[in-house]
């Protein structure tokens, strides 16, 4: 086990929404429509994930993407800091008989040690915003090291692409647009917690971080002013 310096951030703690809370985990698949089985299946095809490939899913949550990658024939390393999420994901994988193709690991962007060979694809969705910018950069450097040269890195997250001077109206408009009533999805309170306690970054900062980590950005898709996806290649 690696011993880190006293200044190293402990990313095994929950920041903002508590994904160790079993009620959160059980409600998650209903709340998070961006990573449904159907969308995950499309992403697997878009990234060209196929039999024999190796894939890391960092911040795998309830395992929807990891399961679809395993169904496509990949060997998947599904990593999360939440044991409640990992337990739930493992049960979902068992239901569709792909648990032998998925290695579940309790770890984070800053703590997971990938001891196997570098992988073909790394995916991380809606998880990196749990780290502040400095630690995002460290996470990018660590993930670049886990990827084969030429391997694909896919990032989806909350990313701000509006002009910073507009932050007050943009955040207000966003929450109004996407928040759901309690019991039907992420609420206005959930989004407020996200903005106040988690770390969404501006796209122009992320682009520089990705290139400084050794990735070539193939696609930067600013889906809305608050969400983006990046498809990158390692060096
Ligand atoms: C919003 S969920 C996203 C889950 C899944 N990737 C998806 O798209 O549905 C965020 C996940 O990231 C995990 N997480 C939080 N901090 C993390 C960290 N430092 N390293 C890895 N995962 C982390 C949480 O436990 C949670 O399962």
Kindly summarize this structure in a few lines.
The protein is an alpha/beta fold. The chain has helices at 22-31, 37-46, 64-71, 83-95, 133-146, 167-178, 188-197, 203-212, and strands spanning 54-58, 75-80, 102-106, 119-125, 147-160, 201-202, 215-224, 227-234.
Fraction of helical residues: 25-40%
Compute the separation of the termini in Å.
Answer: 28 Å
Percent in strands: 15-25%
Number of helices: 8
Class per helix and strand makeup: alpha/beta
| Global outline | globular
- Give me the CATH superfamily: Vaccinia Virus protein VP39
Rg estimate, integer Å: 17 Å
In total, the number of strands is 8
Each distinct ligand: S-adenosylmethionine
Mean pLDDT equals: 96
As for the CATH topology, it is Rossmann fold
Using the 3D structure, state the CATH architecture. Answer: 3-Layer(aba) Sandwich
> How many domains make up the 3D coordinates?
1
- Indicate the multimeric state: single chain
Question: What would CATH call the class?
Answer: Alpha Beta
What keywords describe this structure?
single chain; 235 residues; alpha/beta; 8 strands; 37% helix; 24% strand; binds S-adenosylmethionine
In words, what does this structure look like?
- This protein has 235 residues and is of the alpha/beta class.
- Helix content is 37%, strand content 24%.
- The chain has one domain (22-234): Rossmann fold, CATH 3.40.50.150.
- Strand 4 (119-125), helix 5 and strand 5 (147-160) form a beta-alpha-beta unit.
- Helix 2 (37-46) crosses helix 3 (64-71).
- S-adenosylmethionine (SAM) binds next to loops.
Task: Describe the protein's topology.
Layout: H1 22-31, H2 37-46, E1 54-58, H3 64-71, E2 75-80, H4 83-95, E3 102-106, E4 119-125, H5 133-146, E5 147-160, H6 167-178, H7 188-197, E6 201-202, H8 203-212, E7 215-224, E8 227-234
Parallel strand pairs: 1-2, 1-4, 2-3, 4-5, 5-6
Antiparallel strand pairs: 5-8, 7-8
Helix pairs in contact: 2-3, 6-7
The structure holds S-adenosylmethionine (SAM).
The site of S-adenosylmethionine has 20 residues, from loops.
């Amino acid at each position: 086990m690696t011993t880190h310096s006293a200044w190293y951030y402990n990313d095994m703690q929950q920041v903002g929404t508590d994904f160790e809370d079993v009620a959160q985990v059980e409600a998650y698949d209903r709340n998070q429509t961006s990573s449904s089985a159907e969308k995950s299946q499309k992403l697997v095809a878009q990234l060209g994930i196929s039999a024999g490939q190796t894939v890391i899913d960092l911040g795998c949550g309830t395992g929807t993407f990891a399961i679809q990658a395993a169904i496509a024939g990949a060997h998947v390393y599904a990593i999360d800091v939440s044991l409640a999420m990992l337990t739930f994901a493992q049960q979902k994988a068992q239901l569709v008989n792909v648990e032998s193709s998925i290695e579940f690991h309790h770890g984070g962007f800053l703590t997971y040690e990938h001891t196997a060979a570098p992988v073909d694809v790394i995916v991380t969705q809606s998880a990196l915003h749990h780290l502040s910018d400095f630690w995002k950069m460290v996470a990018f450097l660590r993930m670049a090291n886990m990827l084969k040269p030429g391997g694909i890195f896919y990032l989806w997250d909350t990313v701000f692409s509006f002009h910073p001077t507009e932050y007050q109206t943009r955040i207000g408009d966003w929450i109004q647009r996407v928040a759901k009533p309690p019991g039907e999805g992420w609420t206005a309170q959930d989004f407020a917690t996200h903005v106040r306690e988690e770390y969404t970054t501006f796209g122009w900062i992320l682009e520089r971080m990705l290139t400084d980590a050794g990735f070539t950005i193939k696609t930067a898709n600013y889906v809305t002013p608050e969400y983006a996806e990046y498809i990158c290649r390692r060096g």
